[in-house]
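Before the break, one more example. Copy the sequence into your notebook; we will annotate it together after we see the structure.
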Amino acid sequence: MADVPKLEVWLRGPLPKIPALLQPIAHALLQAQEEVHAMMTDFPENLLWERPFKVASPAFHLQHLTGVLDRLFTYARGESLNTTQLTALAVEGKLNEAITARELVSALDRQIEQSISELAQTNEKTLTHAREVGRAKLPSTVIGLLTHSAEHTTRHVGQLLVTVKILNPKI
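Here is what the structure looks like once it is written out:
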């Protein structure tokens, strides 16, 4: 039997335990996760920190994807960033040859799993509740932050894909 292409996550139906209004966010995060796995499988470690044409490295995108999900979900809960989160933000994109692509993808997997779990626990009645973002306490809402988490994730996965293809055209 010929290989049948796998349907995109959003075409596979509703995800169990995820509120209806949050389904698109969960679908986007899971789709991003699958795409990252596909492009990072067998990615050469020596290219992880490369910056072709001075764009962000694959390592940066993987760190940033993980970090931004953590930060946006923190704000959506109505919390401020803690010291660990601020430290992680400060080192995003800084060369660390000790870390591997597999470790970065695993960290992203854990963060997406945590994010999906939080979506499952989110009461739809809270989606319009006001939230503050960052030290400047910029105004947003729970749904605004959660939606931005999905759109920001997909944006960086697209950038990662282009960078990975430039660095490793076999992918």
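Strands lie at 130-133, 138-141. The two ends are 24 Å apart (CA to CA). Try to locate both features in your own notes.
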